[in-house]
Amino acid sequence: MKELCNMLLFKLIMAALVLAASTEGAHAESIAGTIWRNPANSVHIRMEPCGEKMCGVVVWANEKAKADAHKGSAAPLIGAQLFRNFVREKPSVWQGRVFVPDIGRTFAGHVTILDNNRIEARGCLVGRVACRSQISTRVDKRSAD
């Protein structure tokens, strides 16, 4: 259960990155395409539009992350779309679906944009049970202001 919660949290953080890619106003263009990293720096995700929504695609992962992902899916982790169909729920808050490759399941998640360099993802396994949150940061430290 703890491993599942950790992976869900990781995916939610990545979803947060996706959401940050489409902030309001002029910042949206400068954040979209940005690469974000989870706190362990084991996975990097690029935010990109998917239709009128935002998605997150894995562009780099360390060997442990790749091995963990392989436990639940034969598909390669690099190139996988982990964050899917994120839409703005309200200013600075997004919701969408997060795919957790090591268990082969998709969950609902929320992301809050803290600032142009940090996002917080939060998710729960079922309803409001086993909830976790995590903060991700930009790989490139340039400000999107």
Features:
8-stranded antiparallel barrel; 8 strands; 3 helices; alpha+beta; 145 residues; 43% strand; 22% helix; Lipocalin
What's the helix and strand layout?
Blueprint: H1 2-20, H2 27-31, E1 35-37, E2 43-50, E3 53-61, H3 63-70, E4 81-90, E5 93-100, E6 105-115, E7 118-123, E8 132-138
Antiparallel strand pairs: 1-2, 1-8, 2-3, 3-4, 4-5, 5-6, 6-7, 7-8
Compact summary:
This protein is an alpha+beta fold and 145 residues long. The protein is built from three helices and eight strands, in the order ααβββαβββββ. The chain has an eight-stranded antiparallel beta barrel.
Tell me what you see in this structure.
It is a single chain. The longest helix is centred in the N-terminal third of the chain and has 19 residues, at 2-20. This protein has one domain: Beta Barrel (Lipocalin), CATH 2.40.128. With 145 residues, it is an alpha+beta fold. It has an 8-stranded antiparallel beta barrel. The chain has helices spanning 2-20, 27-31, 63-70; strands at 35-37, 43-50, 53-61, 81-90, 93-100, 105-115, 118-123, 132-138. It has 3 helices and 8 strands; from the N terminus they run ααβββαβββββ. β4 (81-90) and β5 (93-100) form a beta hairpin.
Order of helices and strands: HHEEEHEEEEE
Terminal CA distance reads 40 Å
What CATH calls the topology is Lipocalin
Strand order of the largest sheet: 1-2-3-4-5-6-7-8
Largest sheet, strands/sense/barrel = 8 strands, antiparallel, barrel
SS content category: alpha+beta
Q: Please tally the β strands and state the result.
A: 8
The whole-angstrom Rg is 14 Å
**Number of separate domains:** 1
Strand percentage lies at 35-45%
Spans of at least 5 consecutive residues whose pLDDT stays below 50 are 12-31
CATH class reads Mainly Beta
Mean pLDDT: 77
